[in-house]
């Protein structure tokens, strides 16, 4: 009996958006209007690439970025939840699927002491160039019209489950924990026995309830959370069954 926990990162594990938090490193802690207004829907990764160039051009170095990023607060109750999962790793496989990037997530998880809680992290690859600039790439290519062009979380989840099956690993239940609009696509992939846990008051909860109102509800169960303690309470019930 093994459970798969799938986490989003921004506004789920941490209580902020890591990509907008990095702007604290910019001169006067803000971006010029031209850069801010250059974002086009579905092309966030390209936009962040331009933000990182701007930071590099203004002499913002890796250590300053790291110092800033590791001050992001975890969501209420999340430290307790991740500690609980860490203590029960024989029951839980745990992955992150996020539109952030590898550098930010590694820094934050390692600073919090939670790096080993997660089996795999699926996010946009990032690295510092030889000139000290942070660069970011698309996670993958896909054909899903519903998702931003750099990442379809449903595709990630499906490929992970297929790979696990090849290794002889299948899950009693998938628990999907997220908040954003891009979490709806993987939630719609979940089956009757699985559970989606949208964060209260965020886009994913609203989208799931809109589907229910239009009489095309998601197949899985839905349990809303406001503190990660709510998630921990559910997991404790799950492993008692």
From TrEMBL:
The active site is at residues 8, 10. The keyword Cell cycle does not apply. Its cofactor is Mg(2+). Substrate binds at residues 19, 99. It comes from the Eukaryota. Keywords: Hydrolase, Magnesium, Metal-binding. GO terms for molecular function: metal ion binding; phosphatase activity. Mg(2+) binds at residues 8, 10, 179. Belongs to the HAD-like hydrolase superfamily. PHOSPHO family. This is PHOP2 phosphatase. It comes from Hippolais icterina.
């Amino acid at each position: 009996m093994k459970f798969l926990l799938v986490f989003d990162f921004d506004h789920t594990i941490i209580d902020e958006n890591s990509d907008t938090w990095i702007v604290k490193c910019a001169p006067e802690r803000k971006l010029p209007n031209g850069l801010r207004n250059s974002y086009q829907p579905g092309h966030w990764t390209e936009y962040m690439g331009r933000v990182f160039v701007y930071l590099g051009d203004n002499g913002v170095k890796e250590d300053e970025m790291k110092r800033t990023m590791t001050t992001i607060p975890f969501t209420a109750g999340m430290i307790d939840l991740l500690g609980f999962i860490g203590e029960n790793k024989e029951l839980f496989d745990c992955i992150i699927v996020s539109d952030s990037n590898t550098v930010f997530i590694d820094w934050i998880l390692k600073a919090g002491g939670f790096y080993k809680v997660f089996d795999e992290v699926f996010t946009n690859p990032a690295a510092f160039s030889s000139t000290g600039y942070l660069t970011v790439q698309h996670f993958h290519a896909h054909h899903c019209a519903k998702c931003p062009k750099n990442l379809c979380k449903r595709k990630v989840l499906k490929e992970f489950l297929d790979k696990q099956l090849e290794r002889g690993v299948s899950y009693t239940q998938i628990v999907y924990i997220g908040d954003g609009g891009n979490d709806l696509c993987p939630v719609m992939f979940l089956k009757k026995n699985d559970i989606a846990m949208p964060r209260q008051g965020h886009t994913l909860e609203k989208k799931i309830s809109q589907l229910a109102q239009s009489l095309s509800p998601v197949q899985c169960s839905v349990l809303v959370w406001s503190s990660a303690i709510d998630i921990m309470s559910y997991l404790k019930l799950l492993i008692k069954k």
